[in-house]
Structures are given as structure tokens and as C-alpha cells.
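Input/output pair, single chain:
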Amino acid sequence: MGVGIFSQRNGMVAVDIVASCGVMTPGQISGLARAAEELGVFRFKLTSRQTMVAVVGADRAEELVNALPALGLKVSPYGNVVRAVKACAGSGALCPRSVGEALDLGIEIQEKYLGLEVPKDFKIAVAGCARGCTDPYCADLGVVASGREVFDVAIGGFAGSARPLHGRVIARRISREEVFALIDHVLDRFRALAEPGEKLGRAISRLGLDPFLPARSLEGSEPGPPEDFAKFLGI
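Output:
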């Protein structure tokens, strides 16, 4: 697993800092600001993955990295791993359009899967409604709230290519617990079937979608008839 620390053309270093799907407390922000002033951080840049890049002199980068754990922050993992999760502000308290609790789910997903090794970088996006402000169909795995406690899941999308792919829905209106079971299954199949350096979407294009789908209910390990999985999908 690599870490998000990158040399810049101007001789400085970019440190990619990850929080809980972009959510930070006032204490984290003020603490990071104090460290940044002490270490001469040049600029901060918010990223599309809801992380924060700090551009700092190469001689002070290690000190900045060492200051993060005390603030409940860390350097984002990089390379062929599960990346920082994108989650919108979808919740009953924050977004009037939200139909489900997407933000809390996204934070929980990130806490469980961030940094796990996979054949190629794996991006997850969670949205609180069909508007999909976090682009869930452009992610390796996208979760979209379709009701107060139920979610749709799509896999195989990615946008960072001259040949982008749109994710395909493989489950509708499943529970929060089933979302985690499905993520576990998809990651296991991805590790087993993808070639080194192959995106999930490319592996699906090469092998078809079926090898990545559960044979029956995610609670069981024995193969079952197709209607078992259709029932799980809610169709």
C-alpha cells in the first residue's frame, strides 16, 4: 500500500489528508491550521475525493504527517487499494433532498475498507438520493439511497479514462447490512478474478457481470438457483 505523498514540480510536497468523508470538526480544522502555520504550509487544496491536500516544503512534510494522528486525521492511502470514500451530505439533518442516511453509511464504509489491497485502485461513492451528487455510477462501487433504510448498489463504473464506463445496478432496495455483505462479496471476487492492474469495470467487460454476483443470498455459501439472487436484488 502506498501513501498519498507526492513530489511537486516546484520542489514542494503534496500531502493528501483524509478525514471522515470530508467531515472535519472545528478542533481538527483549527489544529491543522496551527500545524500548517508552524510548518509553513503553502496552500491547501480540496480534492474531488473529499480529501485535503496540503502543499508544504519537502523538509517539513514528515513533521506534518506526524502531526495528523493527534488530530484524528491521517495520510490517505494510495495505489492499488480501496481509496477514500465519497459521500454526500445526504441525511435527515443536512439535506432536504435526502431519502436515506448516506453520510453515516459512507463514513462507516470508509472506516471498514479504506486501504484494503485490491488488484487496482477501488473507489466507492455513496449518495443520499437519485441525483447522485457524488457520481455513484462513475465509481467502482456506488451506493444510492432508495428509501429511508434501503439502498441500490451499482458496480463497475469509472470515469478516469478515455474510455469511461457507467456502473451497472446489481441490487435494489437492500438493507444497510446487505450493502456491507455485497461490498465484501464484490471485493472478494475482484481479488480472485481481476488481472493485476485491471479495473473492476474492465474485468466485468472481459468476464461478464455474472462471475461478480452472489450465487444466492449473501448469507449462504452454497450455489443456488438464479431466483434466489433475484429475490435478494428485490426484483
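The longest strand covers residues 12-18. The chain has six helices and twelve strands.
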